[in-house]
Design goal:
Layout lengths: L3 E3 L2 E3 L3 E7 L5 H20 L4 E6 L3 H8 L5 H10 L1 E4 L13 H8 L4 E7 L15 E7 L9 E2 L4 H13 L13 E2 L5 H17 L4 E6 L8 H15 L1 H5 L4 E6 H10 L6 E4 L1 H14 L7 E5 L6 E5 L16 H13 L3 H16 L2 E2 L1 H4 L6 E2 L2 H13 L1
Helix pairs in contact: 1-11, 1-12, 1-14, 6-7, 9-10, 11-12, 12-14
The structure holds nicotinamide-adenine-dinucleotide.
The site of nicotinamide-adenine-dinucleotide (NAD) has 18 residues, from loops.
């Protein structure tokens, strides 16, 4: 049975069907380990009274080989019906006008939040002095901004037409080299901002985090990024007045460049970050690098209104290491941890994070992390999964 949403609440059956996309490249290896670890955690936490029934749906190379399509409509339909799913990384098919599969998934399901929790695990090497101070959750707007894909290439009739409109009808004379300019459009709306900031604040309150920071470049882009700041504050005042008054919630803002510096210098100042699409892209990668990098950063794309959510490994298909049993499965496993938390199966999620903490402290990790650890014992992908399962049983 699938998860449903009724009267604003997720209804989660004890034996729940969850669709998954295996993913390309290293996808098969990390998916197998992830499912083994999650199954063990659910069994241990709920004594076989709950279970996940994994239902494979196709996308990427496997879908193309079997159906001739990169992203079959049945896959999108299943995610829509099941509300919640998980995916490995997908290659972006080159050429032929095929859009990124990840972008298509996000747009079709209107997954407007890209959520990235960032925390440090003791034992993991970090480039900063106090990685233990890093504990943030990024809410990146996923549907608007300069990433909306509205752009025209320099020299095309469309770019010329767009410039003519700007120049002749809008009186714009600031384009320095109009003949050789490409153009992009940056839509940022009140509705888009409000639903993102609302989700960030609700998450903060639910997880006992007091501070929500709006990160923007409103000093330069006054109506788009400045609008995000203004609408964000307004929403907080209008919808969360009590929480603001009783000190449960504190909302502030920071210019993006200063924010990137501050996260290196005083990461403890920040808890929940609400930001626009492009800023969020940079911020997510910097923060991930501060706590161990690409192999360990989890993520999810979520529509908090419909409840629809796809949890995902945030790294790519890593073709250089595929099939070698060395890929770090932690990004997908920690994404599954987010999924368990999202559906309220916190006992199972805790088992996994506790076990991972224990292993990293003992220096047990895949080679990408173990080679930088003082007491590092590199293990393969499958062995790392087995070690997690054994650790959970203790
Ligand atoms: P990548 O993340 O695949 O690889 C970058 C580097 O990091 C490589 O050296 C790789 O070996 C290493 N790496 C990545 N994940 C790792 C892990 N879990 N453990 C250990 N090392 C790991 O990024 P890329 O090379 O820029 O992209 C390759 C392909 O992946 C492209 O087709 C791209 O479109 C796709 N991609 C997909 C997603 C996604 O599906 N979410 C995200 C990024 C890139």
């Amino acid at each position: 049975m699938y998860i449903t949403k009724q009267n604003g609440q997720l209804i989660v059956p004890d034996n729940v069907d969850i669709p998954f996309i295996e993913g390309d490249g290293v996808g098969a290896e990390i998916t197998a380990v992830c499912q083994r670890v999650v199954n063990a955690a659910v069994n241990l936490a709920y004594h076989h009274e709950r279970s996940i029934i994994w239902q494979e749906v196709l996308a990427g190379g496997k879908a193309h080989a079997q159906t001739g399509e990169w992203l079959p409509s049945s896959t999108l339909q299943t995610f829509q019906d099941a509300l919640i799913g998980i995916k490995g990384p997908l290659m972006t098919p080159v050429g032929g006008g095929i859009r990124s599969l990840n972008v298509t998934l996000r747009q079709t399901l209107d997954l407007y939040v890209c959520q990235r929790p960032v925390r440090w695990f003791r034992g993991v090497e970090s480039p900063i002095k106090h990685p233990e101070d890093v504990d943030m959750c990024i809410f990146r707007e996923n549907a608007e901004d300069i990433y909306a894909g509205i752009e025209w290439k320099a020299g095309t009739p469309e770019a010329q037409k767009f410039y003519q409109f700007l120049h002749e009808q809008m009186g714009v004379d600031k384009v320095r080299f109009p003949e050789t300019s490409s153009f992009g459009v940056k839509p940022v709306s009140r509705q888009g901002t409000e639903r993102l900031v609302r989700s960030a604040i609700e998450y903060a309150l639910k997880n006992n985090k007091r501070k929500v920071t709006l990160v923007h470049k409103g000093n330069i882009m006054k109506y788009t990024e400045g609008g995000f700041r203004e609408w964000g504050y307004e929403l907080a005042r209008n919808e969360f007045a009590d929480a603001l008054a009783n000190g449960q919630l504190e909302i502030n803002d920071c210019i993006c460049d200063a924010f990137l510096q501050n996260t290196l210098l005083k990461p403890r100042e920040y808890q929940v970050i609400a930001t626009l699409n492009l800023n969020g892209d940079y911020i997510s990668d910097q923060l991930a690098a501060m706590v161990g990098g690409i192999g360990i950063a989890p993520g999810a794309n979520i529509n908090y209104n419909t409840g629809c959510a796809i949890f995902e490994a945030t790294h790519g298909i890593a073709p250089d290491i595929a099939g070698k049993d060395i890929v770090n499965p932690s990004s997908l496993i920690l994404s599954a941890v987010m999924m368990l938390e999202y559906i309220g199966w916190n006992e199972a999620s805790l088992l996994i994070t506790n076990a991972m903490e224990q292993l990293f402290q003992q220096g047990i990790a895949t080679i990408d992390l173990a080679r930088f650890m003082e007491n590092g014992h590199p293990v393969g992908t499958q062995a790392f999964g087995n070690a997690l399962v054994e650790e959970m049983k203790k």
